[in-house]
Amino acid sequence: MSQWLTLSRAAHLLGISRIALQKRIRDGELASFDGMVDAEDLQRAWPQFDLDDSGSFEKTRAIREDAFARRLRERVLPTQETLAQRIFVQGQELAELQRTLTRYHALFAALRARLEQPQAPSPAELASLLDDGLAQALSVPPPAQDVGALDAMLRVMSAHVTVKPSGREFFVEGSETLLKAALRAGLAPNYGCGNGNCGLCKARVVAGETRDVASFDYRFSEAEKAQNHVLMCSCTALSSDLTLEVLEAGAPEDIPEQRVVAKVRRIDALTADVMRLHLQTPRSNRLRFLAGQRVTLGIRAGIRDGSDVHGEFSVASCPCDDRNLIFHVSRNDRRAASADFSACLFDGRIRLADDVSVWGPWGTFVLENSSPRPLVFIALDDGFAPINSLIEHAIAVDAAESIALYWASAQAGGQYLPNLCRAWAEALDAFSYRALVADELPAVLGANTALAGSDVYLAGAAQSAGPIADALLAAGVPPAQLHVEPL
């Protein structure tokens, strides 16, 4: 089939002016039709011209096809809401067909059972069985809440992923990457750059299909290709049900030590004595950690006063957002190693866009993922930072049937994020929150008879946390179920 080009396009491909091309046409050296020229005629007139090797032609054709597809989507295809509604309606029809087939199957099973009886049925009896069965199969109305239809729609909108060997599950919304979806769901898969370079987030597809949604530079070996490995940071689920074989971190020792240089994104004063420090890591070098762990923050030498300043702080944010790290920094930090860093923040020596080194993570103050027991969190003053991280993670993974939070401060109203805690209690049925003065805490905990059957997480200044831990052990909390983070 001949390929026709406009005069302008042909002139551009040949590297000549449109006027020169038109002169060839007027001189009879080149035929044209309706302002178009045949590519084969061009090749005969200019033997050195090779259309197949013309990269610019391929690029132009791709642009035209993309523009046509975009116009088609904008003018022909329905909106996302309309598509969702149509999928739901088709799901209803499919669910009703499945129910009808089930009823027909029950009818044939009843007929078969009757025919297998010693006394053969009469034609009138068979006709009656058929009439009654058909009437029942055709007259049963669909349920008001059609779960089958809703499931059919949700299977299109979000893919269900099962992780081996842990058996944990998560859902992929839209075209988000498998890694992002897994982190959002509270999983701790092995990964590094999150940018398709290091290959640490490799996973083997056991069942289902994936598709790439981001470019990557990592090169799979032939064995990895044969075993159907993919990068979780670069692909999403194509099939509605996907099974992956993934390496997960189950304990703090599974998380490697990392060094990241992050930038100060925001500084907020929560109270006169507590600052919220928001650091953001580079896209290609994120911090991998478990909820409840600590890191060492450092200011590079010569930032403004010529000194190196470091401090160790608990990460207050959830690992599901590994780029954005939140810290609660107290003016009255009792640890000498961290007090200098806190002073730099409060006196303005740390500012927006400054570089802060992040080194870690450290600590074993993490959730026991395999425990089915209720969770009790006890924060003493600024000990809320690691508790904040643990609670957000527990909510993300649906870690327990119930969560109780006690936040005790040295003085009434000393809780610096009360609205966040109240929001958790209002949004979650199995979440309870009590703000206390430190002197009230022993009596309140002593009255809680469920502590012995719970996993208890206590964080606060060492001199305050020690007596509370002793009281919890005396109240019957098994040592293996008591986790303490002295700050």
Summarize the topology.
Layout lengths: L3 E3 H8 L3 H9 L9 E3 H7 L9 H21 L4 H36 L7 H17 L7 H11 E7 L4 E5 L4 H7 L17 E6 L2 E3 L9 H5 L2 E3 L3 E3 L3 E5 L12 E12 L4 E7 L13 E6 L9 E6 L9 E7 L5 H11 L8 E8 L12 E6 L3 H14 L5 E7 L8 H10 L3 E7 L3 H6 L8 E6 L1 H13 L7 E5 L1
Describe this protein with a few key phrases.
single chain, 487 residues, alpha/beta, five-stranded mixed beta sheet, 14 helices, 36% helix, flat
Return residue spans where pLDDT drops below 50 for at least 5 consecutive residues. Answer: 51-64
What Rg, in angstroms, do the CA atoms define? 33 Å
Shape: flat
Please give the number of β-strands.
20
Write out the strand line-up for the largest beta sheet, numbering strands in chain order: 13-12-15-10-11-14
Q: How widely separated are the two ends?
A: 78 Å
Helix coverage percent: 25-40%
Helix and strand composition category: alpha/beta
Describe the largest sheet: 6 strands, antiparallel
What is the tally of helical segments? Answer: 14
What is the percentage of strand-forming residues? 15-25%
Average pLDDT for all residues: 82
Oligomer: single chain
Please tell me about this protein's structure.
With 487 residues, the protein is α/β, with parallel strands linked by helices. 36% of the residues lie in helices and 24% in strands. The strands form 5 sheets. The protein has a 6-stranded antiparallel sheet. The termini are far apart.
